[in-house]
Write a structure and sequence with these properties.
It is a single chain. The protein folds into two domains: 148 residues, no CATH class; 86 residues, no CATH class. Helix content is 58%, strand content 8%. The chain has ten helices and four strands.
């Protein structure tokens, strides 16, 4: 599975799966299908209301419709955090290759290059580019420095504990309740990634961040991996008792 590295809010590089060609095509078809349905409804409405007799009204309605179609992707991606309706349903989104949310300029470049990817190449240019590029990018993505990733979380809060916590368990670190659910999920994700890749730098970096964030030193004799596991175990125990 193709992945792209994304820097999280804790400045930890995690590999996220890149949206494939099929998912991108399906999302686009959903968006196009929605416009086709709206177009048909507009035609029926104008015929039923007799508005078809007014040339100015008809021209105005279809001008607005055409403008919505042209600017749809740009507006959606700006105001829906890198997603259109189709992308949201397929659980994919646009991100910058540096892991940040794309800027307005990046969104604009992606939208502008739809002319190359779709309009001027009869939809083929974008498909070929996504199929052959390493990060599954169409031409607009390459120029803008963006790509699409899957937004389905690989780690959920219910999975952050490696083993059930014993009822009589005594937490080692008292302030782990300062963590958010997402931070706890991210710790588990880093540990899972370490077991898959043996990339110890992830563990060292994450343990350093968590130690600083909670203002707790790593105890003597406890390595960074055990520190993160203990933080997760403590967090699960404290939050479960609070519930």
């Amino acid at each position: 599975m193709e992945t792209v590295q994304v820097n999280t809010s804790q400045h930890i590089a995690i590999d996220y799966p890149v949206a494939g060609l099929g998912e991108r095509v399906a999302a686009r078809l959903i968006d196009l299908g929605a416009f086709i349905i709206v177009g048909i409804l507009l035609m029926i409405l104008t015929m039923l209301t007799g508005a078809i007799q007014s040339g100015i009204l008809i021209a105005s309605i279809w001008s607005v419709f055409a403008a919505c179609f042209v600017f749809y992707d740009l507006i959606c991606e700006i105001f829906m955090n890198g997603q259109s309706v189709g992308k949201k349903l397929l659980k994919i989104k646009v991100i910058s290759l540096n892991g940040a949310q794309p800027s307005l300029g990046q969104y604009f470049i992606r939208w502008l290059f739809r002319l190359v990817d779709f309009a001027l190449t009869a939809q083929v240019g974008g498909l070929i580019s996504v199929a052959v590029t390493e990060n599954k990018q169409r031409v607009g993505d390459i120029v803008a420095g963006t790509t699409l990733i899957k937004t389905v979380a690989r780690t959920g809060f219910d999975h952050i504990a490696f083993h059930p916590v014993e009822e009589e368990y005594i937490p080692v670190f008292a302030h782990v309740d300062q963590l958010t659910d997402r931070e706890a999920e991210l710790i588990h994700e880093v540990i899972s990634t370490f077991y898959k890749t043996n990339n110890a730098d992830l563990i060292y970096t994450m343990s350093e961040r968590i130690s600083a964030h909670l203002t707790i030193p790593i105890p003597t004799g406890m390595n960074e991996l055990d520190f993160l596991k203990t933080v997760i175990k403590d967090y699960r125990h404290i939050t479960s008792r609070a519930d």
